[in-house]
Specification:
Layout lengths: L1 H44 L1 E6 L2 E6 L7 H17 L5 H12 L4 H12 L2 H7 L3 E12 L5 E12 L3 E15 L10 E18 L1
Antiparallel strand pairs: 1-2, 3-4, 4-5, 5-6
Helix pairs in contact: 2-3
């Protein structure tokens, strides 16, 4: 009888050990499943789908620190293209400059106001002049904040009788702001000044 009691006690201990191991294994499996699920959700959220010309393109989101220089250069280039690419059409000029001024502070607005008061945009329209810009280089220093930059570009002023080529050099600083539809990169150009803007060539048409 005592032998039976010992066997029952041993069997109970085995069952208890098995149950404990099973519980530990189940808890580990649940934690592992939860971890993998969170990783899968995180990976899915890092994917961005873009609709372009009726096609869905897949892109991947990444931390801003990984590509801050790329975004900063594109922000600066976009601003300069909008500010300096002009056609002899008042609505086109106003639309481009309105978009440009979302990307910069009052220093850009001041240059715009000075050009407008001097009759520059009126001259563009009345003289059937087009102005184009080609960005040569943009350097951004991200070692200190706010980030300082210089932009070197070439302007082409196309008149009915000639094409004037000008060298343009500007500088300023970049401050981070909230992203929006009007400012997708989340930067704001500050203390923007023109260091050089001189003719380097004239071509008769």
């Amino acid at each position: 009888m005592f032998q039976k009691a010992k066997n029952i006690d041993a069997a109970f201990k085995h069952i208890r050990s098995f149950t404990f191991v099973a519980l530990i294994s189940s808890a580990f499996f649940c934690c592992f499943t939860l971890y993998k699920s969170l990783k899968s959700v995180e990976a899915a959220q890092s994917r961005v789908y873009i609709l372009e010309s009726g096609k869905i393109l897949e892109a991947y989101a990444s931390p801003r620190g990984e590509n801050v220089e790329v975004e900063a250069r594109d922000h600066i280039a976009s601003f300069h293209r909008l500010f300096f690419t002009l056609d002899p059409d008042d609505k086109s000029i106003q639309s481009a400059l309105a978009k440009a001024l979302y990307l910069a502070d009052g220093s850009a607005k001041k240059q715009y106001d000075d050009l407008r008061e001097s009759g520059y945009y009126t001259g563009i329209i009345s003289g059937n002049i087009s102005q184009q810009i080609q960005i040569d280089s943009i350097t951004v220093k991200t070692s200190t904040y706010p980030y300082s930059f210089q932009c070197s570009a070439v302007q082409r002023i196309i008149r009915p009788t000639s094409i004037v080529t000008r060298k343009l050099l500007t500088e300023g600083t970049l401050r981070t702001v909230s992203r929006s539809d009007n400012n997708p990169h989340g930067f704001l150009i500050e203390k923007w000044i023109t260091l050089e803007n001189k003719d380097i060539g004239v071509q008769n048409r």
